[in-house]
Specification:
Strand content: 15-25%
Number of helices: 12
Number of domains: 2
Shape: elongated
Structural class: alpha/beta
CATH superfamily of the largest domain: Isopropylmalate Dehydrogenase
Largest sheet: 12 strands, mixed
CATH architecture of the largest domain: 3-Layer(aba) Sandwich
Distance between the termini: 12 Å
Strand order of the largest sheet: 3-4-2-1-5-12-11-6-7-10-8-9
CATH topology of the largest domain: Isopropylmalate Dehydrogenase
Radius of gyration: 20 Å
Helix content: 25-40%
Number of strands: 12
Length: 333
Amino acid sequence: MTVAAPLAVSLGDPAGIAPEVIVEAWARRVEEGLAPFFVVGGASVLRAAAATRGIDLPIALISSPLDASAFATALPVLGDEDCAPSPGMPTLGGARLALHSLTLATALALSGEAGAVVTGPIAKSKLAEVGFTQPGQTEFLADACGVPHGDAVMMLAGPSLRTVPLTVHEALAAVPGLVTRELIERKARIVAHALARDFGLAAPRIAITGLNPHAGEDGRMGTEDRDIIAPAIAALRAEGLAVTGPHPADALFAAHERAHYDVALCMYHDQALIPIKTLDFDQGVNVTLGLPIVRTSPDHGTAFAIAGKGTASAGAMIAAIRMAGQCAARRAS
């Protein structure tokens, strides 16, 4: 795979599983067809993670992304920022390293020195203790790119399915009041543009779920589907977008239904995440749409409970790196 610049991988919390799945991804770089990448900081943490997994890991300490050509024979690590390895035991030093890694990786993607940023999972509570003020990495990326938080759209993507939650980390009781025509239309446009630009889908097909059981059954089980979601879909179709719905969510994710759309725009967090984690848990990728840079992340957390045990699957990290390289290559072409 050819990209204009190597991918920047942020370390995530060094006490989590990110270091070991990153080194596993490098070890499998050839068989998985991964674009060249470098990691920002944490050389000793990465060495310890490789030892845990029995991986022979040459590391090339680099001072510039231009030096990431060492990728073929060694894992390039940018800079000498580091901390003591402590799998499963997050520390403030580890949080500082994670924040440094995320900040620099993002800056390098914005400058064009990195073709994309792939973010390792973080522990938000620890990061907050060292000055991280955003709710999560998506909002951090949005602020760094000068994009409103609402326009940085989360898409979960796997081999079987892509989903986008309209509302994300909101209490279920609050969701009906947050579902508006304007929000549906704005997010659907962002999704359609991103799928065309970064995923090569000239006319992406977007299936929009209903909010209520059976998509409301024409108002008998709630009026939001009829009065808010359906008019938004009609407006989007009038713009020429390939949008359908509102679909009953209980049937939309069956295999024969998935063949008819490229992404499902869902009304709330679990409506979008349960199907993707059921179908593609070990290969799920969190992609941030609507940014001027490419950002992906494995769709899992720090998994402190299994960190350092050598059992964590690297599938989602490999998928995130692969997807970042593919999207970056399309933007560069």
